[in-house]
């Protein structure tokens, strides 16, 4: 367990993803470690920003609790961000900050722009997420 924690700390410091060919890489952890299976490419950040966050979190092997500890954002809010539970989320100004922090913690490119995309979907009522 201690070795796993040390390796996790090392990955966080160094960065868990190699810079080359991110779409071709395998998940950074076994499905048992996070109880989530990552298959295929990331969901579109414009139409499915919550799923995009969840995909990258799971692909990097982080649990919601780990992200909560690092960002100081509650697990419930992180889960609401991933599921796009817009009615349960706080005011848009807070959501923008939370999404920005979440995306930065996952080392997503241009976390600020991603937060704006998320807010746009939130303010449109998220109608396109219904299937």
> What radius of gyration results from the CA coordinates?
15 Å
Q: Are there runs of 5+ residues with pLDDT below 50, and where?
A: 17-37
Order of helices and strands: HHHHHHH
Please state the overall shape, judged from the principal axes of the Cα atoms.
globular
Strand content: under 5%
Secondary structure tally: strands: 0
Kindly state the percentage of residues in helix.
Answer: 40-55%
Number of helical runs?
7
By secondary-structure content and strand pairing, the structural class works out as: mainly alpha
Overall pLDDT: 79
Major sheet details: none
Report, as a whole number of angstroms, the end-to-end distance.
41 Å
Structure notes:
This protein has about 130 residues and is mainly α. It contains seven helices and no strands. It is globular. Mean pLDDT is about 80; it is low at about 15-35.
Summarize the model shown:
The protein is mainly alpha-helical and 131 residues long.
Task: Give me some keywords for this one.
single chain; 131 residues; mainly alpha; 7 helices; 0% strand; globular
Present the secondary structure layout.
Layout: H1 2-14, H2 31-34, H3 49-59, H4 64-71, H5 75-83, H6 92-105, H7 111-123
Helix pairs in contact: 3-5, 6-7
């Amino acid at each position: 367990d201690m070795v796993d924690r040390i390796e996790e700390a090392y990955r966080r410091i160094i960065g868990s993803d190699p810079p080359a060919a991110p779409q071709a890489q395998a998940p950074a952890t076994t499905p048992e470690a996070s109880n989530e299976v990552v298959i295929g490419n990331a969901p579109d950040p414009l139409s499915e920003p919550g799923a995009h966050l969840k995909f990258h979190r799971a692909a990097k092997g982080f649990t919601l609790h780990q992200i909560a500890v690092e960002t100081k954002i509650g697990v419930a809010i992180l889960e609401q961000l991933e599921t796009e539970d817009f009615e349960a989320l706080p005011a848009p100004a807070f959501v923008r900050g939370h999404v920005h922090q979440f995306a930065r913690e996952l080392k997503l490119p241009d976390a600020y722009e991603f937060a704006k995309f998320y807010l746009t979907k939130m303010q449109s009522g998220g109608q396109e997420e219904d299937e």
